[in-house]
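wait is this the right file?? whatever heres the structure
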């Protein structure tokens, strides 16, 4: 596999063909990419809401109808699938306990000592962000962005077009989906599907700073 070719060929889709839908088997693969995305201390401080129906996409598009966001609303409505990436609003002890229990059930702890050591190490990092850096929300949202990156590259590998979308009003989306009540907040959206003839970005050359500006070798 030429992974660089996939990175060079992907682009941010600016207009979708509403008639083309992602096959169910590929949607399952994309879900697996989201679920297995890595996160610091395996914290998985996220939830992903996927809309494939017109009704579901219309609910999400409500957050991208005003002013500069309006062009994103059209992408959301015409895409095959739309993913809302949510972060937890707390990294509380209940979440940490369920995480440890899940890892135990998945066979990660051959001895009680290994489980206790993991719990202790995890407490160090959560305490660091909670009490010293005081950036737990920001830390969790960084993890959510890793899942976005994983999804974007994976979609490109499957020849599915995608649009990462920060241009929406999170307050409207949180309200529409009742996210706060679920201990969640919306962070970023990804539209997925297949480009239409109006996707001007597909015809433009990609633009990035030169290699030596962004990468140094020691
Ligand atoms: C986190 C993030 C948010 C973005 N938000 C939007 C957006 O709201 N609308 C949009 O059309 N493109 C959005 N983009 C696309 C970027 O403009 C695009 O990735 C960048 O210009 C590079 O182009 P390329 O993705 O085609 O390689 C976003 C990209 C990222 C990574």
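ok assuming it is, sequence goes like this
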């Amino acid at each position: 596999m030429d992974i660089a070719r996939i990175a060079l060929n992907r682009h941010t889709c600016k207009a979708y063909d509403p008639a083309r839908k992602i096959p169910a088997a590929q949607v399952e693969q994309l879900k697996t990419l989201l679920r297995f995305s890595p996160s610091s201390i395996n914290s998985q401080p996220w939830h992903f809401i996927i809309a494939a129906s017109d009704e579901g996409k219309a609910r999400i598009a409500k957050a991208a109808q005003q002013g500069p966001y309006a062009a994103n609303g059209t992408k959301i409505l015409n895409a095959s699938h739309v993913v809302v990436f949510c972060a937890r609003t707390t990294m509380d002890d209940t979440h940490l306990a369920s995480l440890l229990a899940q890892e135990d059930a998945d066979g990660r702890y051959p001895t009680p000592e290994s489980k206790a050591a993991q719990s202790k190490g995890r407490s160090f990092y959560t305490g660091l962000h909670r009490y010293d850096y005081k950036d737990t929300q920001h830390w969790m949202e960084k993890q959510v962005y890793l899942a976005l990156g994983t999804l974007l590259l994976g979609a490109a590998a499957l020849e599915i077009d995608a649009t990462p979308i920060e241009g929406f009003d999170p307050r409207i989306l949180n309200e529409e989906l009742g996210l706060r009540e679920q201990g969640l907040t919306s962070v970023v959206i990804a539209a997925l599907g297949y480009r239409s003839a109006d996707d001007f970005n597909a015809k433009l050359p990609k633009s990035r700073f030169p290699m030596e500006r962004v990468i140094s070798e020691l």
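The two ends are 28 Å apart (CA to CA). so i think its the right one actually
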